[in-house]
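Let's practice the habit of predicting before peeking. Look at the sequence and jot down your guess about where helices and strands might fall. Then scroll down.
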Amino acid sequence: MYQQPYGWWGGHGWGGQQHSLSIVELMEAGTVDARLAALLWLLIERRASVIVGHSQPLSGKTAVLTALAYFLPRSVSTYYTRGWGETFDFLQGADPQHSYILANEISPDLWVYLWGPAAVKLFAYLEQGFAFGSTVHADSVAEVVALLERPPLSIPRRQLAKVDLVVTLGNRGGGWQRERWVNSVSLLGGHGVDGLSTTTLTTAEKAGAFRHHLSGPVIAALGRRCGLDAPGFRQELARREEFLQGLQRQGVREISAVRQTLLEFLGDSPDQPGPVLPL
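Done guessing? Here is the structure:
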């Protein structure tokens, strides 16, 4: 039961429908570029925990999170939370290193979202080696941290430091046709003032205008997260960027087709069941 999506879209879909967009479609829309998509692929492939934020509904948070979930390899099992009353009993016997929890949103807005004690438990599981992806109503890393640190959640910083990525979105226009893009990607860590550090990886003021802040020290830090040295990380990043650009040129954009090509790229065995992903 917990390996099937539950209330994933929270009553909304992009374009008025519950329809998942592939990472290639997000590239075509200017939501991400190939370099950013490749960077997120490398990290999510290795089970990086991610929070996608924007303060407004219908901003594309769940659409971006869904596209990122398709970067998980077949060796990872996905588990979907069931809202305010979630107990996480489904994790008993699960292997933390091969599990990924997907919580559609951390907020009190709907009962299918996580809030209160259920959300507190989610962060506690990070200390056991589990990873998760979710969304929140916040427009910056500082707002995400403030939301999670204040009551009723009061998440301690040692747990926040185990969230790898905070992705925030920018919007322009109105309604379903608004322009949406990733306006910042930040790497969290357990160092710095008060036990929490942030490193900016990407910024953008509008769709398609991305600036990547991948200096030598940042590449080295990302490589350590991925079990690679700096040259190896650069090579893998370039390889994935070129691959995604090739998909875009070839017109491979439908989400199932993109997923299949990603698995072939990784050499994942089709005999493994793989994670159940939202459509």
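How did you do? The two ends are 16 Å apart (CA to CA).
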